[in-house]
Structures are given as structure tokens and as C-alpha cells.
Design a protein that fits this description.
- By secondary structure, this protein is mostly helical.
- The protein has 3 domains: 94 residues, Fumarase C, Chain B, domain 1 (Orthogonal Bundle), CATH 1.10.275.10; 238 residues, Fumarase/aspartase (Central domain) (Fumarase C, Chain A, domain 2, Up-down Bundle); 59 residues, Fumarase/aspartase (C-terminal domain) (Ribonucleotide Reductase Protein R1, domain 1).
- 60% of the residues lie in helices and 5% in strands.
- The strands form 3 sheets. Strands 1-2 form a two-stranded antiparallel ribbon. The protein has a two-stranded parallel ribbon with strand order 3-4.
- Helix 8 links the parallel strand 3 and strand 4.
- It binds arginine.
């Protein structure tokens, strides 16, 4: 009999055994075993629906659910063996179920295909991971806001084009990253909430003639909606693409912050020292203390951007509906998620390990004419049109460059030789602290405004934190993962 030659699920159709190289290329179990708990939760929800609609008996459902819970237990305890011969996570779970409960295991796949099953597993996985990632990034925001408040009064140069531009404070600078990461959390939670649609019922591509009840499964898994179209459902990886996009943007922010840490800890800047716990030495140069962790944060962004690129390219030419190319979604997605989460988890302690060097910041503020705009604004207050004031101060700067002195070194008489309209208090604006105090605008660098921004950041943080509390893993998945009794079937 031909069916004895090929042991796979489709062995009935095949008369030759699978080639060994083909088996190993075709198999995804090495990486998709990460979806095992989601796969089991989805199967339990599906089996409850099969019983509710009369497609299987209540006794059969209990046997299936008991077997699936047993498999989850084995996976948690590490005693479950995944095998390549069973190709992927879905067939590994189903094969193990057959060993445990016998032929009734064959009823579980009624009205379902691996195509809608893998779509479900991925969505459930994303919902949980995105919730946890959002919480981890919120902890980074907490550290940034806390440090921003502590250093709200510490003046440092602000830059454009990496040229000293105007005074800001260290707290103001750190808070900029808090603002970025609050947006990151919001983007990740948006992606999560859009992922909460139930794909089961799409079948292989064209639904199923069996009288299933999609709404019931959605209630069981706490999905907010059903997917709209069966062809789209099995060939859609938007939730993964959105996740990778949002993670990539997060990693842009991480990388920029890391780059600033590398600059700040250099001898050229000297604005910050990092505690030894976050640095390494050189095996050759005894004097070296290198910012390896910021450098790795900067470097790891490359893998995450690569993952996004990889999935975009995998998806771009696929005809409807499911194609096996889509199995290539998982490794980049898992790697990008793990990488981003590792970066998020290291950041709070790394940020707190920075010791700002006030003297170096102050010295940098005194060179580079950072108060030139303030002096121009003084002339504007005296009635000089800004464009003209800009020109006058430009001449003053050129004058100082000729003499190798600072604007602060010019006397009022010298200023008035450049232009008679300088007021009596012109020189008093040449002070970084006063300059900061006058920048009294919402979102600006005046220390009181920085504290106000910290308070506003905290409000957004708390609202997002609240949002993470619902919309993550369903009660069924949580109980299964914890080895607790499952909630009763929904009605
Ligand atoms: N391992 C597959 C994947 O990740 C599951 C779906 C397989 N479906 C199929 N018709 N071969 O995409």
C-alpha cells in the first residue's frame, strides 16, 4: 500500500517517502515551537466550539482538552520532545495528542487548516509579546523621566548639525527620548489591538462547509473582531509587519540615544561617565574604558531593520492566498522581538549608570557663541528687525573670532560701536541660566517647563500603562501558561 511509505499527514496521496533534505528544509519546528502554548490554547478554544455546535461530543471534547492540557504541562516541564519528522508545531501537538488520546485526536482538525491555525497562533503570540514589550519600554520611559527631573536644572549645550547651538539642560535632552518612547509604546499597542482579530474559520483559503461558530471561538480567546475575508486571513502578515515597523522605529530611537552616549562618554565631549558595570576594557590598551553596551544597542538596531526588510520582501510578490514562503516570517520576527526587548530591558539601569559631568558641560557652553541668538533677541526687544539683528550679531561673532575672545568679553562700548542700539542691559543676556529661564514655552528648556513636561510625560505613561492591562493574553492562555485550571467554556 502506498500510504505506508509516506508517514506524513498527507501520506495517503503520496507513494514515495519524503527526501531527507526536503524534510529538513520544509520543517519549521526548530523555530515555530515557540508558538506551542498559543497553538494549544487555540486548539482548546476550537474544540470547545466543535462541541458546542455538535461537531464532536462533549466527552470527545473533554478527552481532547485533557490531552492538550497534558501536552502543555509536558512543554512547561521540558519533557516534551519536538520532532522534525512532524514538520511544524501544529503537527507536533496533534501527533502527540494522538499518542495520548488515540483516534479521537483526528477530530480536532475538523473545520480548520494549518493556514488559519498558524495565522491564529501568530496573532495570539503578538498580542502577548507586544503587551510585555510595551511594559518594558514604559520602564525605560520611567527612568528617562526620573533622570530628566533630577537634571532639569543642569545646563548643557544643545546642538544642531552637531555644532553647539543654544543652551538646553541635560534633563531637557533626556526627556526628548522619553517623548519618542511614549510614541513607540502607543504604536506597539495600536499594532497589538489591530492583531486581536480571529482568523479561524478561514480554513485553507475558502472557509469550511462545516457548521462552525467563529464568534464563539473569538469570545473564548477574547478577540475583539473576526477577520473579514478568508483569502486575506490566511495570507495576511500585516500584524507582523506592523510590529516590525514599530520595533524598527523604537530601535532608531534606541540607536540615537546610544550614539549620544558614545559621544558623551568620549574624551572629546566628556559630558558623562558610565559606571564600570556597563563598560569593558581593551585587551591591549590598558587605559581604555569602552562604551560597549551603547555600541551594541546602536548595532543591534541593524538586525531589527533587517527583519522588517526581510518580511517585506517575502510578502511583496505573493499571490493570494497562503504560500509556504510565509513560513519565513517567524525567524526574523522572533529575533527582532527578542533583540528589541533585550535592548529595552538593559536601558533603565544603563541610563541610571550615567553620571553627568557638570563642569565639562559648562565649559562647552562657554565656547561656541551659544548665546548669540539671545543677544540678537535683545536687539529685537530694542526694536531692531530680527534679520538686521542677526546680521549685527554675526558681525559681533566675526569680531570675537578675530580677537579670539567670547561675546561675554565684549564691553558695552564695544557692542555699541557695532551698533548703537544695544541697551544698557545688553550684556546681562549673555548668561546660560538666564537664557534658559527666558525660554518659557510649553515643551521648552526652562527648568520649570522641563518639570512640567515630566509631569505630562508621566500622565501619558500612566494612561499607556493602564492600556497594557487589557488586550494581552486571554484568560485561557494565561491559565494554560501558568498550569492553572482553565476558565470554563464561554456560552
Ligand atoms: N509551518 C507553516 C507556516 O508557518 C504552517 C502552515 C502550513 N500550511 C501549509 N499548507 N503547508 O506557515
Amino acid at each position: 500500500m502506498a500510504s505506508d511509505t509516506n508517514q506524513s499527514a498527507w501520506g495517503g496521496r503520496f507513494s514515495e517517502a519524503t527526501d531527507a533534505q526536503v524534510q529538513s528544509m520544509n520543517a519549521s519546528i526548530a523555530f515555530d515551537q515557540r508558538l506551542a502554548m498559543e497553538d494549544i490554547a487555540g486548539s482548546i478554544a476550537h474544540s470547545r466550539m466543535l462541541a458546542a455546535t455538535g461537531l464532536i461530543s462533549p466527552e470527545e471534547q473533554q478527552t481532547l482538552e485533557g490531552g492538550l492540557i497534558g501536552i502543555a504541562h509536558d512543554i512547561r516541564s521540558g519533557s516534551f520532545t519536538f520532532t522534525e519528522a512532524r514538520e511544524d508545531v501544529h503537527m507536533n501537538v496533534e501527533g502527540a495528542l494522538a499518542e495520548r488520546v488515540g483516534d479521537v485526536a483526528g477530530k480536532l482538525h475538523s473545520g480548520r487548516s494549518r493556514n488559519d491555525q498558524v495565522a491564529l497562533d501568530l496573532r495570539l503570540w503578538l498580542r502577548r509579546e507586544l503587551t510585555e514589550t510595551a511594559q518594558e519600554i514604559l520602564a525605560v520611559v520611567e527612568a528617562l523621566v526620573e533622570l530628566s527631573e533630577t537634571h532639569a536644572d543642569l545646563p548643557m549645550p544643545g546642538y544642531t548639525h552637531l555644532q553647539r547651538a543654544q543652551p538646553i539642560t541635560f534633563g531637557h535632552h533626556l526627556n526628548a527620548y522619553g517623548a519618542m518612547m511614549l510614541r513607540d509604546v502607543s504604536r506597539l499597542l495600536d499594532a497589538r489591538d489591530r492583531a486581536a482579530e480571529l482568523p479561524l474559520g478561514a480554513g485553507a483559503l475558502a472557509g469550511t462547509p462545516l457548521p462552525i461558530d467563529r464568534e464563539r471561538v473569538a469570545r473564548e480567546l477574547e478577540d475583539s473582531r473576526l477577520t473579514l475575508n478568508s483569502l486575506d486571513t490566511v495570507s495576511d502578515r500585516d500584524a507582523a509587519l506592523e510590529t516590525l515597523s514599530a520595533l524598527s522605529i523604537f530601535m532608531v530611537h534606541v540607536s540615537r540615544l546610544a550614539e549620544e552616549m558614545v559621544l558623551w562618554t568620549s574624551q572629546e565631549f566628556g559630558f558623562v561617565t558610565l559606571s564600570d558595570a556597563f563598560c569593558t576594557g581593551s585587551s591591549l590598551m590598558p587605559q581604555k574604558k569602552n562604551p560597549d553596551i551603547p555600541e551594541l544597542l546602536r548595532g543591534k538596531s541593524g538586525r531589527v531593520f533587517g527583519a522588517l526588510q526581510s518580511l517585506l520582501v517575502v510578502m511583496k510578490g505573493l499571490p493570494l492566498a497562503y504560500n509556504k514562503d510565509m513560513q519565513e516570517d517567524k525567524e526574523p520576527l522572533f529575533d527582532a522581538m527578542d533583540t528589541s526587548r533585550m535592548c529595552a530591558r538593559v536601558l533603565p539601569a544603563l541610563l541610571r549608570a550615567m553620571k553627568p559631568q557638570a563642569a565639562a558641560m559648562k565649559a562647552a557652553l562657554s565656547e561656541g557663541f551659544l548665546l548669540a541668538t539671545d543677544l540678537a533677541d535683545h536687539l529685537v526687544a530694542e526694536g531692531v528687525p530680527f534679520r538686521e539683528a542677526h546680521h549685527i550679531i554675526g558681525r559681533a561673532v566675526a569680531h570675537c573670532l578675530d580677537r579670539s575672545c567670547a561675546l561675554e568679553d565684549l564691553t558695552l562700548e564695544e557692542l555699541r560701536q557695532l551698533d548703537p542700539r544695544f541697551g544698557d542691559d545688553a550684556r546681562s543676556v549673555l548668561d546660560a541660566t538666564r537664557s534658559l529661564d527666558r525660554r518659557d514655552v510649553v515643551g521648552g528648556p526652562k527648568p520649570a517647563r522641563v518639570r512640567e513636561t515630566c509631569a505630562r510625560s508621566r500622565e501619558t505613561h500612566d494612561a499607556l500603562s493602564e492600556r497594557t492591562l487589557s488586550g494581552g493574553a486571554s484568560a485561557l492562555e494565561r491559565a494554560l501558561a501558568a498550569g492553572e485550571p482553565l476558565p470554563p467554556a464561554t456560552s
